[in-house]
Write a structure and sequence with these properties.
The protein is of the alpha/beta class. The chain contains seven helices and six strands. The protein has a six-stranded mixed sheet with strand order 3-2-4-1-5-6. Strand 5 (169-175) and strand 6 form a beta hairpin. Helix 2 (29-38) packs across helix 3 (54-62) and helix 4 (86-92) crosses helix 5. It is globular, with a radius of gyration of 16 Å. The two termini are 29 Å apart.
Length: 186
């Protein structure tokens, strides 16, 4: 069976606007309204999942998706860096930021490395490849970047070359258990 998966990044939050590594914050009113407006463009889905985070669950609700919570779709764990801006962290820990952005196995913040994130997302994505249902998943930019890397077989450090905005949609299609990136839309 061939998998069809639309992944959506959660709508905007205060942390997104402030360029701060997020904690578990709610959507901004504007982000909620934008997600609700997008709901009619999704088409029908057979099954949907959402990250456990509040911002992803609120996005799924605004999109009118009956989404099951899936822990594997949770945002990358940024450890002690959560709630701080990259500029702030770079001023305090420049070597740690350099390691994190140049070594896929580095996790100087005490959370997940890029390799850890890829290892977490891969089995979930693999299971969807053989599921013939039309599926949707509301998640985070980091998880969507990981899915792109896994789908196209890119190097883990390609993670840093992919930008995913709030409410970005990505369509993946699988044939014979192998994913293809079909489209990315803002």
């Amino acid at each position: 069976m061939n998998g069809r998966l639309t992944m959506l990044c959660h709508a905007s939050t205060g942390a997104v606007r402030a360029a701060v590594f997020p904690r578990d914050e709610p959507l901004e009113p504007r982000g909620h309204a934008q997600a609700a407006a997008l709901s009619s463009h999704l088409g029908g889905v057979d099954v949907a999942w959402t990250s456990p985070s509040l911002r992803a669950r609120q996005t799924a609700e605004a999109l009118r998706l009956d989404a099951a919570v899936e822990p594997l779709l949770g945002d990358i764990d940024l450890g002690r860096w959560a709630g701080h801006s990259l500029a702030e962290i770079e001023s305090r820990e420049p070597d740690a930021v350099r390691a994190w952005t140049t070594q896929a196995d580095a996790a100087p913040h005490g959370g997940e490395s890029i390799d850890d994130l890829l290892e977490r997302v891969a089995p979930w994505l693999d299971a969807r490849a053989r599921d013939g249902r039309r599926a949707a998943a509301v998640t985070h930019a980091a998880v969507m970047r990981a899915a792109i890397i896994l789908a196209i077989g890119a190097r883990p450090l390609s993670f840093w070359r992919i930008d995913i905005a709030p409410l970005c949609r990505m369509d993946l299609r699988a044939g014979s258990g192998v994913w293809r990136l079909r489209s990315i839309r803002p």
